[in-house]
Design goal:
heterodimer, A: 193 residues, mainly alpha, Rna Polymerase Sigma Factor, Chain: A, Arc Repressor Mutant, subunit A, 2 domains, two-stranded antiparallel sheet, 8 helices, 4% strand, B: 149 residues, 5 helices
Chain lengths: 193, 149
């Protein structure tokens, strides 16, 4: 009877095994992949959504969907692209549902030690505040592209896969977003570079 | 009209940002607007990423463990598989309920003349008792079918 589990008064064959068989990778590979990608994904999502709790939920949802989606053969780079694409689509769905732009990221100053502007954390806090205000002037897609290009170091092809755009259109869009953000940052009169 | 041409030294700027050695590029950055934009934007974004990573390391931001996410995903997949497996059974149950209802209606229609004749012979209290019993049985049957949902 070990092949059967009961659900109410009905027997359903090997549910547990059937569920795990729908996963596209085994547990060991998942663990390794999660350790490598969960932090960058969380950072990306928390920046896009401006909401840490939402980022927590979206990370879990993204990994779950990645486990269940049928993937073509490929390495971890391809998997990571898929993961970010899933996450990006989830964020867009969330915005569509709310019909609003993402809220501002809470800076949570009480959590950042050393609020003295001379200290490193003080500078970080100031830098975050400037970036936060500047990012608000960008479209969600521009934020996605800039983060992927300059934090994740993604190629134009990878960005096009994640954002669902043509590879050829990434360069001009990225350039435009970069100029726009740089203009706003300069407007804040903060020399960072 | 937006100029889509970029400076060929962009990769150099990104590499310098990565290594933290911007000094050799200072002159170029004052002359090239594109590279200055790149250094400014990439610098801010990477700084933000470092802060977030630091918060995660310090435990200020919570990220569930791989084991927890795996376990939760497995539970959810199991539940979804179970729901999928139950779909044909639910359809069959509904079909059986519909067929039973139709059969009951057909039987009532078929026996209606003889039933009215029979009730004429019975006392009103007996008719009331039989009607109540029928309603109770039907109610219980409907409850048994829908209670699970």
């Amino acid at each position: 009877m070990s092949d059967f589990v009961t659900t109410g008064n009905v027997f359903v064959p090997a549910l547990e095994q059937a569920a795990e068989e729908t996963f596209q990778m085994d547990e060991a590979r998942f663990h390794a992949f999660y350790e490598r990608t969960s932090r960058p994904l969380w950072a990306y999502l928390s920046r896009l959504t401006g909401d840490r709790t939402a980022a927590d939920d979206l990370v879990q949802e993204s990994f779950y969907r990645l486990l269940r989606v049928k993937l073509p053969d490929g390495g971890d780079a391809m998997l990571k692209s898929y993961l970010f694409r899933i996450a990006t689509n989830l964020v867009r769905d969330e915005w569509r549902k709310r019909k609003t732009q993402p809220p501002a990221l809470e800076l949570e100053p009480e959590r950042i030690e050393g609020r003295n502007p001379e200290s490193r954390h003080g500078e970080q806090h100031e830098s975050r505040a400037v970036l936060e205000h500047a990012m608000q002037s960008l479209k969600p897609r521009e934020r996605e592209m800039l983060w992927l290009a300059y934090v994740e170091g993604s190629s134009h092809q990878e960005i096009s896969q994640v954002c669902g755009l043509k590879t050829a259109s990434i360069r001009p869009l990225l350039l435009r977003a970069r100029r726009k953000l740089a203009g706003v940052l300069r407007g804040k009169k903060v020399a960072h570079a | 009209m937006l100029n889509n041409n970029t400076c060929p030294r962009e990769q150099e700027v990104l590499d310098a940002l990565q290594s933290g050695r911007m000094e050799p590029l200072r002159e170029h950055l004052t002359a090239c607007t594109d590279c200055a934009d790149l250094a400014l934007v990439a610098g801010f974004l990477r700084n933000e990423s470092e802060i977030v990573q630091e918060e995660l390391s310090r435990g200020n931001a919570h990220l569930p463990s791989a084991s927890f996410v795996w376990w939760k995903s497995k539970l959810r997949a199991k539940r979804e598989t179970q729901e999928q497996a139950m779909v044909p059974l639910r359809i069959a149950e509904k079909a059986a309920l519909g067929a039973g209802g139709l059969a009951a209606a057909a039987t009532a229609w078929w026996f209606w003349p003889s039933a009215t004749q029979a009730t004429a012979l019975l006392s009103p209290s007996m008719v009331l008792l039989a009607g109540t019993a029928a309603v109770c049985v039907m109610g219980f049957a409907l409850y048994a079918v829908f209670a699970k949902e």
